[in-house]
Amino acid sequence: MKDFIIIMFILTFVLTGNIIINNILEKDSGKIIDTLKHLEENIGDESIANEKAEELYNLWQDTEEKWSIIVDHQELDAIKAAILTAKAAIKVGDAKVGYEQIENSIFLVGHIKDKLTVEWKNIF
Fold first, then answer.
1. In angstroms, rounded to a whole number, what is the distance separating the alpha carbons of residues 96 and 79?
2. How far, in Å, CA of 58 to CA of 33, rounded?
3. CA 52 → CA 4, 19, 41, 91, 106, distances in Å?
4. 3-state class of 119 per DSSP?
5. Which long-range contacts (CB under 8 A, 24 or more apart) does 26-34 make?
6. Nearest in space to 80 (alpha carbons), one of 100, 99, 59
7. pLDDT tens digits, one per residue of 66-121
8. What is the DSSP string of 30-80?
9. How many CB atoms sit inside 10 A of residue 50's CB?
10. What is each CA distance from 27 to 21, 33, 36, 59, in whole angstroms?
11. Torsion angles phi and psi, residue 68, rounded to 5
12. DSSP assignment, residue 123?
């Protein structure tokens, strides 16, 4: 009976932690993806694009601190590099490179959220 209680406690702890992590990832990735999509829609308007790029970078810095506990640092670095490249491209007026890096960022952020979600396809 003692072993059963210990196992149930560990399972409860793991599942609760997973639910909390999934909620954090869902909320933060949603904010980042929404900002990226808004930036993508306004990439032709230089003033709005520069403002959104700066907002995105600040949002990413806040998110990166939380995600560094959960996510592999190489993946975080890839997202940061894509965001910085998009920001720089928008600043110099290179919409093509900016658009590519925005799409890359959307993919990377979505991939992390999907990868860390507990689903049957991720377990087996």
1. 18
2. 14
3. 52, 31, 11, 11, 15
4. coil
5. 26/113, 28/63, 28/66, 28/67, 29/109, 29/110, 29/112, 29/113, 31/59, 31/63, 32/56, 32/59, 32/60, 32/63, 32/105, 32/109, 33/106, 33/109, 33/110
6. 59
7. 999 888 899 999 999 999 999 999 999 888 999 999 999 999 999 988 887 766 66
8. HHHHHHHHHHHHTTTSHHHHHHHHHHHHHHHHHHHHHHTTTS-HHHHHHHH
9. 15
10. 10, 10, 14, 12
11. -65, -20
12. H
Tokens 């979600």 correspond to 117
In the 8-state DSSP scheme, what is residue 93?
T
pTM over 0.70: yes
How many angstroms separate the CA atoms of 98 and 115, rounded? 25
If you search the block for the tokens 């890359």, which residue do you land on?
104
For 7, the token pair is 């196992």
Residue showing tokens 């049957």: 120
Contacts of 56 (CB under 8 A, 6+ apart): 32, 35, 36, 39, 83, 86, 87
